[in-house]
Specification:
With 422 residues, the protein is α+β, with helices and mostly antiparallel strands.
Length: 422
């Protein structure tokens, strides 16, 4: 790469960034909207969050970092959504994308980001430390599902979203995603809720109080009509959402309408028992994640570890677990578990001494960082990861059971903001 510089975009670079996006993504407005809204309106945005590679003064590659706190179970960690990432077509295969990605990853690490997620090509992003760690999930509403007579549900009416609804729909969203790994947290602002594309957000409001009881985000997913997100307060709201989605399917002459939510979402449970179909696939791109700061991430997870332990026979034991990861550096984190309480200690690994618990048992997990990513989010459990040659577990079945309790499998899903949907 000749005369190449990589770093934060300057104000003079922004027009070139938009030209580059147009060349890379054609008529799609999604990527333009993500850059425009984030750089101009997002109070979380910092100058360095738009990274570019330049030859002299010409921008040849870019990446956008969107700061959003992310959930890992019930805890919230410093997170980012990455996208779009683009290189000018005439400059591809010259290492510019690699340069801007590696620069961006180090920048996020230096900024104290714990976890970063993105949806992208599975053959590309593992080069920079990402690995598959989120699922593509949906609940399919079929046109033949029976509903209750309309007069029994008339108390909730569908209307457009208003500014006065923002706090209520934000509360509903957080209630529905309270323990959903990789779900981003939101604020009750127009920046994070108002659609900038063709997607529409409708509120289910109480006809007597006008208070929001649920919401629906309608749009398209890879060209097919879909409910991009829903929020529900209770079973009455679930029934009203189901009715509204069936009306949408009928109006558009659809045999089925996908609802892009996790199987753990309360509406997913309701729809399943009313004849909906839950689908989980790895298609439509890959949801990927990377742990950037193992020390702070696992320390923030202490209370979540305790919540998970409290539900099992490990809630009243004294033990330790060492987690040693290898990547750009080797880092060892020790989880000290004492009668349901968890504390962490993270140090760079040198000789790699393994601690023993009170019974003299060594409990340790050694794995590459790319395997820690799906373990933390719940995308892959330890029983699958243990089959990989680079994974080493000491402590036998006891250690494996403990790891499985601390890092249970889940349906992680995140990185989808209503405001940028087309």
């Amino acid at each position: 790469m000749m005369d190449t510089t990589v770093g934060p975009a300057e104000s003079d670079d922004y027009s070139q960034v938009h030209t580059l996006i147009e060349k890379s993504f054609g008529n799609s407005r999604l990527e333009h909207t993500m850059v425009e809204v984030t750089t101009a309106e997002d109070p979380n945005f910092s100058k360095g969050d738009l990274r570019v590679a330049k030859i002299g003064s010409r921008v040849v590659s870019m990446m956008l970092i969107i700061r959003r706190p992310l959930r890992i179970g019930s805890v919230i960690v410093n997170g980012t959504l990455v996208g779009p990432v683009a290189t000018s077509p005439e400059d591809e295969r010259r290492g510019y994308c690699s340069a801007v990605m590696r620069d961006g990853v180090q920048y996020m690490r230096d900024q104290g980001i714990d976890l970063t997620i993105l949806w992208g090509h599975p053959w590309l992003y593992p080069h920079y430390g990402y690995s598959p760690a989120m699922m593509s999930t949906e609940v399919v509403i079929k046109s033949g599902i029976d509903t209750q007579p309309r007069e029994e549900k008339a108390r909730l009416v569908l209307r457009p979203l208003r500014d006065t609804d923002l706090q209520r729909v934000t509360d509903i969203y957080h209630g529905n995603t309270a323990t959903s790994s990789c779900a981003e947290t939101r604020r009750p602002t127009t920046t994070e809720w108002m659609s900038r594309g063709s997607a529409t957000i409708k509120v289910l409001a109480d006809s007597s109080t006008d208070e929001a009881a649920g919401y629906i985000v309608l749009g398209t997913d890879f060209g097919r009509p879909a409910a991009l997100e829903v929020g529900v307060r209770d079973d009455e709201a679930c029934e009203a959402v189901l009715d509204a989605l069936l009306e949408t399917a009928t109006k558009n002459r659809l045999m089925e309408l996908p609802c892009l939510i996790s199987p753990s979402h309360p509406f997913a449970h309701y729809a399943f028992y009313r004849g909906g179909e839950v689908r989980i696939s790895s298609g439509r791109g890959a949801g990927m994640a990377m742990v950037l700061n193992q020390e702070t991430l696992l320390a923030k997870m202490e209370r979540e570890f305790e919540r998970r332990l409290s539900l099992t026979d490990f809630h009243n034991v004294d033990t330790v677990l060492q987690i040693r990861t290898s990547g750009a550096a080797t880092v060892t984190t020790t989880l000290v578990i004492s009668r349901g309480r968890v504390s962490t200690n993270t140090v760079p690994s040198t000789a790699g001494t393994t601690l023993r618990d009170a019974t003299g048992v060594e409990n340790s997990l050694k794995l590459p960082l790319v395997s820690l990513n799906p373990l933390v989010t719940g995308y892959q459990g330890i029983r699958d990861l243990a089959k990989q040659p680079a994974t080493e577990i000491r402590g036998g079945e006891h250690a494996q059971r403990l790891i499985n309790v601390l890092f249970p499998e889940d349906h992680p899903r995140g990185g989808h903001l209503p405001l940028v949907w087309e």
